[in-house]
Design a protein that fits this description.
Strands 6, 7, 8, 9, 10, 11, 12, 13, 14, 15, 16 and 17 form a twelve-stranded mixed sheet that branches. This protein has helices at 34-45, 47-54, 106-117, 127-144, 160-167, 182-194, 198-207, 216-219, 222-236, 255-263, 325-341, 382-393, 422-433; strands at residues 25-30, 58-64, 96-99, 121-124, 148-149, 173-179, 245-247, 266-277, 280-291, 303-310, 314-321, 359-360, 367-377, 397-407, 410-417, 420-421, 443-447. It has three domains: 7-153, NAD(P)-binding Rossmann-like Domain (Rossmann fold, 3-Layer(aba) Sandwich), CATH 3.40.50; 167-321, Dihydrodipicolinate Reductase, domain 2, CATH 3.30.360.10; 364-447, Alpha-Beta Plaits, CATH 3.30.70. The protein is built from 13 helices and 17 strands. The longest helix is centred in the N-terminal third of the chain and has 18 residues, at 127-144. The structure holds NADP nicotinamide-adenine-dinucleotide phosphate (NAP).
């Protein structure tokens, strides 16, 4: 596809940026909710600073959302309105389309395809879109000579995309892991601080506006998985692939687990993990036990944090606000400034055609230490049955706690294992389930060395 030179290709001298001599970078914004209004507020509040750093003003040429008459935090009456967001992808009117609608498919995907196919740049905060369609969209962007940017899609205001693509570009990344969902972290740390049950901590998160009315993407690990797939692509040169991830959330973590983990010297955190093992890649999201002295164990409330291990840089950790209008708008506008400056890095660290899938590490082969919680009938012989299950499954126990008071006539058995494989643990859990004195579904969490 041929592309005419646009004003985006010729950044102006910084001194001209606010003088009215420089043509602005014209953007169209689709979606005027939390993030869309935050972007408008930032572009207005920091207009001079943004123009100076972008070497040209950034001007909103058109906006679109579902309901034109909705009362919004920001008055959008002065901006040209498009009923159909696809009409924003007009090369005569804008240089960049900013998609802040959400959803992996539907209008967001249609808008991304239409924008990039027309050689216009595309900026989004939409992790689901990039995790599911990032490789296709990156190819489309390269063919059209356009930029595709998504700093806001991972960990809100934390500049982790830029860190991986640029700051750590000289490193071979061995592993990364992070707290990528503020809602889940708020719930887990609230349970830790107050002894609250999961349902009560979730209700508090909803009341404070951290969790949606339908919180399933946050607490079932899907949101963290979207972000992990994107980070893995940036770090390991693979196309983002949601099918390559094992995903578990935090719904099954109880106040009992939080208390026992503490007693054992751990905190429970929902982590997104991507780790290279030779030529294979292990990608997963799950609640796990992290030693209380680790930096990630100290990340509290709705914060996010990501630790990356580069072979020359060593460990690098960034912590900050992973969501909300301000932090997310900060990342969206940073992408716009990059585009205005004419900075053209590949979408995912490598050219789209060079991204290669890596073989996944089968779950059963993953090695590590594990935490198991059982509720069992309080009677003679049960411990012998549990010990036999462990012996027959070939798993050795590091620590065992037995404590009554769970329910009348039952006790909690909490054990941690020495290093073993996840396959061996599955085998042991199957043996536990077959013991009639085991009352509930056993819970197994990984003890994550980080
Ligand atoms: N909120 C955060 O803290 C945060 C953080 C990081 C990333 N993100 C991502 O940012 C994106 C936007 O999130 P948000 O929280 O701002 O969502 P939001 O508050 O629900 O806003 C969504 C906007 O999209 C519009 N919209 C919905 N369906 C549409 C359609 N079919 N056609 C046109 N417009 C449509 C809505 O229009 P109406 O207003 O007219 O209904 C609304 O303005 C999502 O991808 C999200 O994952 C959000």
């Amino acid at each position: 596809m041929t592309r005419t030179a646009s004003p985006i290709d010729a950044p102006a001298a910084a001194g001209d940026a606010t003088s009215g001599k420089v043509k602005p970078l014209r953007i169209g914004i689709a979606g005027l909710g939390t993030v869309g209004c935050g972007v408008l507020e930032l572009l207005d509040g920091n207009a001079d600073l943004v123009a100076a750093r972008a070497a040209r003003p950034i001007a909103v040429a058109a906006v679109s959302a579902r309901d034109r008459h909705r009362q919004r935090r920001v008055d959008v009456g002065a901006f040209p309105w498009r009923d159909n967001p696809l009409d924003l992808a007009d090369p005569g009117a804008v240089h960049v389309v900013v998609e802040l609608i959400g959803g992996a498919d539907g209008p967001a995907l249609a808008l991304a395809r239409a924008t990039l196919a027309r050689g216009l740049c595309f900026v989004t905060a939409n992790k689901a879109l990039i995790a599911h369609h990032g490789a296709e969209l990156a190819l489309l962007a390269e063919r059209g000579g356009a930029a595709l940017r998504f700093e806001a899609a991972v960990a809100g205001g934390i500049p982790i995309v830029k860190t991986l693509k640029e700051g750590l570009a000289a490193n071979r990344i061995d592993r990364l892991h992070g707290i990528l969902n503020g809602t889940a972290n708020f719930i887990l740390t609230r349970m830790e601080e107050t002894g609250a049950r999961f349902a009560d901590a979730l209700a508090e998160a909803q009341q404070k506006g951290y969790a949606e009315a339908d919180p399933s993407f946050d607490i079932d690990g899907i949101d963290s998985a979207h972000k992990t797939a994107i980070l893995a692509s940036l770090a390991f040169g693979t196309p983002p692939d949601m099918t390559a991830l094992s995903i578990e959330g935090v719904r099954h973590v109880t106040d009992v687990d939080i208390a026992y983990a503490r007693e054992l010297g751990y905190r429970i955190r929902l982590l997104g993990i991507a780790r290279r093992e030779g030529a294979r890649l292990d990608q997963r999201v799950h609640a796990c036990l992290v030693e209380e002295g680790e930096a990630l164990a100290k990340v509290r409330g709705a914060a996010n944090a990501i630790e990356v291990h580069g072979n020359f840089a060593g460990p690098t950790m960034i912590e900050g606000l992973g969501a909300g209008a301000g932090p997310t708008a900060s990342a969206v506008v940073a992408d716009l400034i990059e585009i205005a400056r004419g900075n053209r890095t590949s979408t995912f660290s490598l050219p789209a055609g060079a991204l290669r899938p890596l073989e996944a590490v089968p779950a059963a082969e993953r090695r590590g230490r594990f935490y198991v919680r059982l509720r069992v009938v309080d009677r003679i012989g049960v411990m012998a049955d549990i010990a036999a299950g462990l012996r027959d499954g070939g798993v050795s126990v590091e620590r065992l706690i037995q404590r009554g008071g769970a329910e009348p006539d039952s006790v909690h058995l909490i054990l941690t294992t020495h290093e073993t494989s996840e396959g061996a643990m599955d085998n042991v859990l199957a043996r536990f389930r077959a013991i009639d004195a085991v009352l509930d579904e056993p819970l197994m969490l990984r003890i994550e060395p980080i």
